UniProtKB/TrEMBL annotation:
Superkingdom, taxonomy of origin: Bacteria
UniProt KW Repressor keyword: no
Similarity section: Belongs to the type-I restriction system S methylase family.
GO biological process: DNA restriction-modification system
A GO molecular-function descriptor: DNA binding
Residues of the Type I restriction modification DNA specificity domain: 3-158, 235-385
Protein's recorded name: Type I restriction modification DNA specificity domain protein
Gene source species: Acinetobacter bouvetii
Pfam families hit by this protein: Methylase_S
Keywords: DNA-binding, Restriction system
């Protein structure tokens, strides 16, 4: 062990205190984070401790979960928070605490519970060099900041795609813009172009000729009239169709225990829980289980195509209304289902965003164990646009969703790098100064 590395108890490094009660009815609207056992739970108008700071889940299923708050905050009584770092770097302590399995200190029976006095004697290997502590914290924080940035970008990009979808296919804004322009004796095509682009007519004239022509072509795909249908007013020329006529719904395969646990293989075999993995918020870019091609062929597991939307079809997970898009041919278990677009009738990203607008809870059957009635799902009526407009939407949405996919893949690489570096940096196996480009 290097001379500046030593064994110390947690009680020598930090002081912990139980958080403070703040019933929801006593919270006042504000910008101060309220931190609980699983991290951020809301906001208040008053802080009782300064940030940056660390909280550790004290009770329940989130016992032992470690969170970091950058600003002043209010720690709830469901967590412990650090009141004294005893000269140690805060970020370093945060990452050190994240390596500890706090389940070993559980003092509860029916419900998990964490006592700070049980934590204090636990011994850890640390560097006493404050500069080295700071470097380790900075390296790991840089990775997490990049992860957070990518996730924020992904949320923004998906929000943009959803806004376009809603404008075109739910609210019919370009169609309504044309109708209003006709009634006012104005140019309906220009009105639709303004609606689609969010630009004024003056700004349209400043566009390049190619961009203007492309926008003009898009606007021409929208009609200038609404007609009555069984779903109310819909754009003229669009159809009222059933969901089952524009996509194929395919159930998953039984995933027996003997096939589970393999992390190597060409084909992901995903379960409902894989949708919750970090990085899989929109696209499935990783899985807990894989199998090889030979087993897939031998067992005749159904391969679900790249671009299909997958979701839970049974159990509590169904109620969460999660949808995910496959990035490669994938096997899904029999608690899931996929929806694949029918050529000439739908497109992958249109179908994904369409399914996100449907509340599966309204279709759930069963009480003890909720399940999705697929026949009801197929019968859902939708307003179906022309294929030319669907293709145009796919061209607009594709760059947004592809960027999300690339960011998700990058996040998976960053998570792997962080998880590999974390124990090695905190044990001194890797010298932080080398990673920072310093020597000596």
């Amino acid at each position: 062990m290097k001379s500046n590395w030593t064994i110390k108890s947690l009680g020598e490094l930090i002081t912990l205190q139980r958080g403070h009660d703040l019933p929801s009815q006593d919270r006042i609207e504000g910008t101060i984070p309220v931190m609980g056992s699983s991290g951020l739970t809301g906001y208040h108008n008053k802080a009782i401790t300064s940030g940056p700071g660390i909280v550790i889940g004290r009770s329940g299923n989130s016992m032992g979960e470690v969170s970091y708050c950058l600003c002043d905050f209010w720690p709830l009584n469901t967590c412990l928070y650090v009141t004294d770092y005893k000269g140690n770097d805060k970020r370093y302590i945060y990452y050190l605490l994240k390596t500890i399995n706090f389940d070993q200190f559980n003092s509860g029976s029916a419900q998990k519970s964490l006592n700070r006095n049980a934590v204090y004697p636990f011994q850890v290997n640390i560097t006493t060099c404050k500069n080295e502590q700071k470097k380790i914290g900075e390296i790991l924080a840089t990775l997490e900041e990049k992860l957070d940035l990518n996730n924020q970008i992904n949320q923004t990009l998906e929000s943009i795609a959803q806004a376009i979808f809603k404008s075109w296919f739910i609210d019919f804004e370009p169609v309504r813009a044309k109708i209003a322009a006709k009634q006012n004796g104005e140019d309906p095509e220009l009105a639709a172009m303004c609606s689609i682009s969010g630009k004024s007519q003056v700004e349209l004239q400043q566009m390049s000729s190619d961009d203007f022509a492309e926008l003009q072509e898009t606007a021409s795909l929208f009609p200038d009239e609404l007609v009555e249908s069984e779903l109310g007013e819909v754009p003229k020329g669009w159809e009222v169709n059933s969901l089952g006529n524009i996509c194929n719904f395919t159930p998953g395969s039984a995933f027996k225990p003997e096939y589970q646990g393999q992390t190597q293989g060409e084909i992901p075999f995903i379960k409902v829980s894989d949708m919750n993995l970090n990085g899989n918020e929109i696209f499935i870019v990783k899985a807990n289980n894989y199998i090889d091609n030979s087993l897939q062929k031998e067992r005749k597991f159904k391969l679900h195509e790249e671009g299909a939307t997958v979701f839970a079809k049974i159990g509590v997970a169904l109620i969460s209304n999660r949808r995910r898009v496959l990035t490669m041919p994938t096997i899904i278990d029999n608690n899931m289902m996929s929806a694949s677009p029918l050529k000439g009738l739908s497109t992958p990203y249109y179908l994904y965003l369409l399914l996100k607008t449907i509340d599966f809870n309204t279709l759930v059957s069963g009480t003890a164990l909720p399940y999705l009635n697929v026949s009801d799902l197929r019968k859902i009526l939708i307003v179906h646009p022309t294929i030319n407009l669907l293709n145009k939407f796919e061209l607009m949405a594709n760059p947004l969703l592809q960027k999300i996919k690339l960011n998700s893949v990058q996040c998976e690489g960053l998570v792997t790098l962080r998880d590999n570096l974390l124990p090695k940096l905190l044990s001194g196996e890797i010298d932080a100064s080398v990673l920072n480009g310093e020597h000596g």
